[in-house]
Amino acid sequence: MKKVTTFLHQGDLPDGVLSGASAVAIDSETMGLRLGRDPLCVVQLSDGQGDAHVVQLDRSTYDAPNLKRLLTDPAVIKLFHFGRFDIAMFWLHLGVLTTPVYCTKIASKLARTYTDRHGLKDVTKELIGVDLSKAQQSSDWGNAKLSDDQVAYAASDVAHLHALRARLDEMLVREGRDGLARACFDFLPHRAVLDVAGWEDTDIFAHS
User: Fold this and answer.
1) DSSP assignment string, 124-189
2) What is the DSSP string of 20-33?
3) pLDDT of 140-163, one tens digit each?
4) How far apart are CA 26 and CA 153, in angstroms?
5) Section 116-124 average pLDDT
6) Which is deepest, 41, 71, 114, 131, by most CB within 10 Å?
7) How far is residue 144's CA from residue 88's CA, in Å, rounded to a whole number?
8) What are the residue boundaries of the structural domains of the chain, listed by start?
9) Coil, strand or helix at 194
10) How do 51-56 and 5-10 pair as beta strands?
């Protein structure tokens, strides 16, 4: 496995970082999984070229103009695994709607119908042979100083999404579901806005 070079930034991405990338893998770390209760703390990003950038946000202002510009850049595809949550957090705390997007979890559910194991660790292990550590998944991301283990964990969650996308795209095309996947990705930001607006646990398409 190629070693990932990780950079920790305070408050925002530095000027020029990730400029020119056509696709950027993104994940976030929060104090919990409850919208409206748990704050957004960290955003990690990678262009798939071997570097990962971990941004520890200023929670008093969430003033991160370079990050917000990237999240809304129509020329850059943002890659997520379970993007629904991250996109909702960005809408709630950063005030921007992230588009266009690609979600490897949605792609996995459409392509890998032979399994119900669609977590990042399972998909990464099967499709590209990388065994991710989840030891820091539950840790205090609100700390003023992140540990080296936390920073490394954050980087690992975005380091392989480009490779996963390539493999999943092959499977989606093979199964004739690539068009359906694109339609789901297009809808995903709107699903996230519905979550923030209070329909998080409601299936608006259900009969009852």
Assistant:
1) HHHHH------TTSSS-TT-SS--HHHHHHHHHHHHTHHHHHHHHHHHHHHTT-HHHHHHHHHHHH
2) T-SEEEEEEEES-S
3) 999 999 999 999 999 999 999 999
4) 13
5) 95
6) 71
7) 24
8) 5-199
9) helix
10) parallel
pTM over 0.90: yes
Cα 53 off chain centre by: 13
Which neighbouring-strand residues pair with 43? 28, 55
Q: In angstroms, how far is CA 144 from the centroid of its own chain?
A: 22
State both tokens at 81.
């695994």
Q: 189 to each of 92, 180, 183, how far by Cα in Å? A: 12, 16, 11
> Biggest alpha carbon distance in the chain?
50
CA 45, CA 169: separation in Å to the nearest integer? 21
CATH 3.30.420.10 fits 5-199, yes or no: yes
The alpha carbon of residue 132 and the mean position of all alpha carbons in its chain are separated, in whole angstroms, by 16
Tell me the C-alpha distance between 14 and 86, whole Å. 21
At 186-206, the pLDDT tens digits run: 999 999 999 999 999 999 999
pLDDT in tens, 18-37: 999 999 999 999 999 999 99
CB-based contacts of 207, cutoff 8 Å, min separation 6: none
